[in-house]
């Protein structure tokens, strides 16, 4: 995950308990609805490399590897996910095909990958232009994002969450960013919008593609 505010605040918010819950849910039920949508938007991933930013325990990249991707990289700000992620990789015999890094993706960008995934990451970073711009620059073929819809109820909900976090002393904050800003950042890096899908009343997912090799 990227640095939404202070790294310590993020790691407290997304800690070991959350990692255990995420891993257990994935083992029992597989991917959730918005995660499945991103896998579908990825299309044919045969012989590709995948970069997942803020991937947590790495469920989406596991599915993309099962669908034919060659290798994956996971960049996550919280080190609390590493133990559960390593167990999931070992269970599926994929430990040698995934490079996991604990780092701030925006400050320490990685080499380009064919497919770049940010599932519910945009809403955790204040500077959407910078975040999406760095992700787009790392994308050879397809950039996939899930983020809150620009709706009155999502803004009200995020506002209530942030108020609670402030009152409880947490440094973590969430954001509802304009889709136009994301699209402009992707456009500047040579990506164009391919698909935009609503996921219920709260989330939406998009696929940006590069028309020529990066």
Labels describing this entry:
Rossmann fold, single chain, 214 residues, disordered N terminus, 7 strands, alpha/beta
Q: What is Rg?
A: 16 Å
Structural class: alpha/beta
Would you identify the regions where 5 or more consecutive residues have pLDDT less than 50? 1-5
Shape summary? globular
Helical residues, percent: 25-40%
Mean residue pLDDT: 90
Name of the CATH superfamily: Vaccinia Virus protein VP39
The N- to C-terminal Cα distance equals 24 Å
What is the name of the CATH class?
A: Alpha Beta
- The number of distinct β-strands equals 7
Q: SSE string, helix = H, strand = E?
A: HHHEHEHEEHEHHEE
Main sheet: strand order: 3-2-1-4-5-7-6
Biggest sheet overview: 7 strands, mixed
Give the count of helical stretches.
8
CATH fold topology: Rossmann fold
CATH architecture: 3-Layer(aba) Sandwich
User: What percent of residues are in strands?
Assistant: 15-25%
The domain tally reads 1
Task: Report what the structure shows.
By secondary structure, the chain is an alpha/beta fold. It has a single domain (7-210), classed as Rossmann fold, CATH 3.40.50. Helix content is 40%, strand content 23%. The chain contains 8 helices and 7 strands. A 7-stranded mixed beta sheet has the order 3-2-1-4-5-7-6, with helices on both faces. The protein is globular. Residues 1-5 have low confidence and may be disordered.
